[in-house]
Amino acid sequence: MAASTAPQPDPSAIGRIPKPPFAHVPGTEALFATRAARFEALAGGGHGLAPYLGFLAGLTRVQQQVAAAAPEPAMPSSGQLERARTHAMPPLDRAGFSPDATSFAIVAAVIEGAAALPMPAEAGAALARLQSAERPTLAALIGNVLANAIPPDEVAEHVFIAAALQVDFARRAAKLNAADLQPVADGVCPCCGGAPASSLIVEWPRYEGNRYCACALCGTMWHYVRAKCTLCAQTGKISFREIEGGGRVKAEICGDCNGYAKVLYTAQEATLDPVADDVASLALDLLLRDEGFHRAAVNPFLTGY
Amino acid sequence: MNMDISRRRFLQGAGAGVAGTALGAFGFGGVEAAYAATVKEFRLFRTTEARSTCPYCAVACGMMVFSAPSAETGRMEVVHIEGDVDNPVNRGTLCPKGAGALDYIRSPQRVKVPMYRKAGADAFEEVSWDFAMERIAQLMKEDRDANFIETNADGVTVNRWPTMGFLSGSSCTNETGWITWKVARGLGMLQIENQARI
């Protein structure tokens, strides 16, 4: 008797309640195109940070163009991917990443593209320093960004590099099969091992109301239990803060670690973007900093918070 | 668990102020300062999302219970209930009864204290928990003393209390079920209703 061929009961096939997919890898051009459109909409809506949001909209358009034109990235060998899978390690581990020719090509393209954007003198000066930088200098900057160790006196250079790395990692992540990704650790991207920028309560058909964390580096989205700290994985002392009248973006606060990360409710506004709306809701960060909570999320465009 | 915090805390602690932030470094320090000044006007609003279990039936669906401060009293109150998407039993769904649980919580008829109707009386009156527990224990004791069966017709020890049943809750946990069983069986009861059969 071949017992394994017998039909297996699958209660999720009954009705409308399938198990949500664990991970969703980015479609790179769409990722940056959607984000740029969101930045543009936010900048045009009379926002207090409109000049900065407009600058980031331009930078994200550059990311989109570079993502479309960059050379194909080299992927880890099937042996390396299999080993990562066996030991529940991120397949594109940011901690063990060394930039290759594709990475430097993307960095150069982002620098070149950004140079055409209107920007304040400080940003222009940082970009000029990057334009004249040699590969070893760029490699050191890349290392700092991947280690989340951005020196306070060189933030602008590092954020440009972070923008280039988002393109590089998103293109690599896009080549992975999402179904092969598996949980690595709580609050850690299953693709690159990074921290989330924020999380989304999605309204994907049949998966409405599920929460997905969005990686700040590679753009991978992974399923994460709601009302659970993305930093320390505790569930006991979770509460939320929102600015009165604005229920679309809430800060999920953990009383155990005193950290918080933002949750975006796409049912309230479908175009919310995990990176753009994190920047646009800086008011929440400013108010929570006064209350003594610390930011658990990573977003290069909000470095320093 | 991500370990990026200590470094960022250090940066924040280093207090480079505007110079330490991306906005300041890109030359948007003025925009940042003006924005920060307007933000002081905003008021933060505390809400909660708590997990609970539907009280109605033994399927025991997971619920997310949303609370927010009441506009009148300022006290937290339940404002919304939906199925818990992370619960493997119901994955975010609720039946019409469960979906209407908000009205059950707010119902003016909701029983929040022990109520007692004396024999022969036509209305319930509010009593203390102590009174209720004493009264139930006393009636159970009297009934058990009168009807307990130690041995059957053949002289075999059976320790039955056939005249009393025990009704427990459908959404009780395994642990509560275990204690229920120990208490009820320990007293000799045979009819235990846990509603755990759907």
Automatic annotation (TrEMBL), chain A:
It comes from Paracoccus marinaquae. Transmembrane segments: none annotated. Pfam families: FdhE_C, FdhE_central, FdhE_N. This is Formate dehydrogenase accessory protein FdhE. Residues 20-185 form the FdhE N-terminal domain. InterPro entries: FdhE_C (IPR056796), FdhE_central (IPR056797), FdhE_N (IPR056774), Formate_DH_accessory (IPR006452). CDD domains: FdhE (cd16341). Residues 188-226 form the FdhE central domain. Residues 228-302 form the FdhE C-terminal domain. Residues 1-21 are annotated as: Disordered.
Automatic annotation (TrEMBL), chain B:
The keyword 4Fe-4S applies. Its cofactor is [4Fe-4S] cluster. Keywords: 4Fe-4S, Iron, Iron-sulfur, Metal-binding, Oxidoreductase. It comes from the Bacteria. Its main location: other. Pfam families: Molybdop_Fe4S4, TAT_signal. Residues 47-109 form the 4Fe-4S Mo/W bis-MGD-type domain. It is found in: Cell envelope. InterPro entries: Mopterin_OxRdtase_4Fe-4S_dom, TAT_signal, TAT_signal_bac_arc. NCBIfam families: TAT_signal_seq. Belongs to the prokaryotic molybdopterin-containing oxidoreductase family. This is Twin-arginine translocation signal domain-containing protein. It comes from Paracoccus marinaquae.
